[in-house]
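Run log // design_07
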């Protein structure tokens, strides 16, 4: 008889974690972002202008700064070598806009300098995608067919997702550290001011969303390990 994988107590514990942790992180991010989105940058620069200045100052004058549709969809595209900023960041003249724009420039500089954790994360992308596509299929079939070795292989594949998210943390924290240093060096935000403090708070709130994703991924893997172990013990 197949044990109902979706309805044991580990599922409900995981569900609470999966809903609460990212939800709280996202709430923290949005409240912090909305607060400092309304704090004007004394320099009057837009996020796009901040990105342009920082790129030019770091030997990336040929890199384009473009606008990305959506809200907080800001990212650095390493394939096209372009910094993409969402509407509020691209056009915004706020502390939040400057912080986010500088963070994405931090990724561009990481790419230029061959920052090793960024290179490792890029190398893990296909493995994480592979694990995401096939890992859960293997786990489902393993439980359905009572083949725990197959389920274990599925857990191993999902582990690539956890590894990817783990490597993401130093990449994101380093980009934020670079952003703060760059904004200070270029006098985009001034030391010991509310602007600098606000920029740091925005970047810290954004970083917590990555921590939350890692916590959820680890919780999922632990749940699956417990379930496989229980099934093996019953055999």
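design_07 sequence
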């Amino acid at each position: 008889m197949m044990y109902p994988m979706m309805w044991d107590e580990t599922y409900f514990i995981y569900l609470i974690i999966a809903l609460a942790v990212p939800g709280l992180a996202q709430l923290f991010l949005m409240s912090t972002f909305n607060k400092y989105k309304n704090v004007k940058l004394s320099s009057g620069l837009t996020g796009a202008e901040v990105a342009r200045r920082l790129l030019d100052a770091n030997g990336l004058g040929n890199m384009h700064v473009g606008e990305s549709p959506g809200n907080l969809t800001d990212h650095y595209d390493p394939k096209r070598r372009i910094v993409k900023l969402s509407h509020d960041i691209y056009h915004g003249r706020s502390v939040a806009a400057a912080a986010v724009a500088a963070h994405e420039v931090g990724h561009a500089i990481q790419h230029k300098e061959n920052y090793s954790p960024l290179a490792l994360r890029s190398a893990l992308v296909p493995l994480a995608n592979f694990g995401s596509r096939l890992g859960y299929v293997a786990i489902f079939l393993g439980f359905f067919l009572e083949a725990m070795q197959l389920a274990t292989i599925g857990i191993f594949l999902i582990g690539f997702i956890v590894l990817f998210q783990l490597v993401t943390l130093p990449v994101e924290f380093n980009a934020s550290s670079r952003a703060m240093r760059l904004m200070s060096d270029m006098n985009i935000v001034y030391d010991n001011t509310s602007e600098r403090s606000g920029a740091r708070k925005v970047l810290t709130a954004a970083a917590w969303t990555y921590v939350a994703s890692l916590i959820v991924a680890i919780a999922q893997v632990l749940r699956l390990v417990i379930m496989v172990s229980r099934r093996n013990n019953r055999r």
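Helices lie at 9-37, 47-57, 87-91, 95-112, 116-144, 148-185, 194-234.
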